[in-house]
Design goal:
six-stranded mixed beta sheet, Chloramphenicol Acetyltransferase, 18 strands, four-stranded antiparallel beta sheet, alpha+beta, globular, OB fold (Dihydrolipoamide Acetyltransferase, E2P), 22% strand
Amino acid sequence: MPQYKQFPLPDTAEGLTEAEILTWHVKPGDEVKVNQVFVEIETAKAAVELPCPWDGVVTELLVEVGQTVEVGVPIITIDVDPTGSAPAPTSASASASAGSNGKIGEEMPGGRIATLVGYGPRSGAAKRRPRKDAPAPVATAPAAAAPVAPAPAPAPVVAEPVAPRGGYVPLAKPPVRKLAKDLGVDLFALTGSGPGGVITREDVEQAVAAPTAPAAVDHGTRERRVPIKGVRKATAQAMVDSAFTAPHVTEFLTVDVTPMMELRARLKNAPQFRDVKLTPLAFAAKAVTLAVRRTPDVNATWDEAAQEIVYKDYVHLGIAAATPRGLVVPKVRDADRMSLRELAVALDDLATTAREGKTTPADMMGGTITITNVGVFGVDTGTPIINPGESAILALGAIRDMPWVVDGQVVPRKVCQLALSFDHRVVDGQQGSQFLADVGALLADPGVAMTY
């Protein structure tokens, strides 16, 4: 007889609470194999592909694309015995299975379901976010023991669908929509007083009782609304937490980087660099890892709970990267142990992976200091916000041809602006200034690296 198993959304990264379904790679009726990728989800950190833990046939997709689901909530049902060759489970065998070593998807003691990572399903249904032009999902059961005649129930109140304007549909329950239609009230002209901006019956009735006001300007066709979720939501929360937790100080330095650019031109023709994308960012990354040696405070972490400052003898260098899903900050692990060539290769691989949306959650955790390269957008500098858990971030500005005084003469030079934001709880002004000056000196005269 068929044996159905439900796969709950696993915790793919430390602290994950929910994820959005991006793409289903299977549909009901498809055969699946162990380790076959069957769904792609987007967490607060990255897009992740999930493998199937069983062989079988898909009987039901429990969650639609675009739906946000809590960790532990089942997302798919699979018949792991479609041929009916396995004997039907008895209560005794079910109890024995629950007390076994807990294979993925099987019931554990206490009713939990073993998952790839994390814990079994929590009670409660999946949280649904508003979606454009999509009907409400209809829950179906993969199989039933015997048909049961449904009890008679009153017909539900059905309101005619409201056509979106510019992708926006007013939030209101069907009875409220029907009331508005009967009374001739335009829901698009109302501001909901309910939770989350939901339009209530009282809002409609007040609109009828209120005196006629001049018609509001309809901007619907020139506006669009996009739900705040995924990477964008996580980034926004992290930046707010950092800005209102760590006391930021930002210092600026303008540097003549002509010697660095000349060295870059020479190295690009060297045999060991001919197949490497050698960018100014690679030089900045090397300068940061060297400067950290003299000012380890910028690579430390403030531990509020333990009331300690954690000094780290390694550099996991974060690189801010713009992607179609928003800003992500993947890390170059142990960047302080890498040569300039190794850093250049690592940065190129990191950027390619980020643009493709394939950066894993693990690759974005545990950074110690970050560089944001605003220069690639033609921006001179800025005041970057420190990533949570770190104490400093360096902004690398655009490199421009500018007039510069050399030996009393004004000559054209390659000039770049640097900005360093640091946590003043960990880094004093003298330490922050020393670090920024060291980075600038290494870019202005790469030969200074010989002294480190």
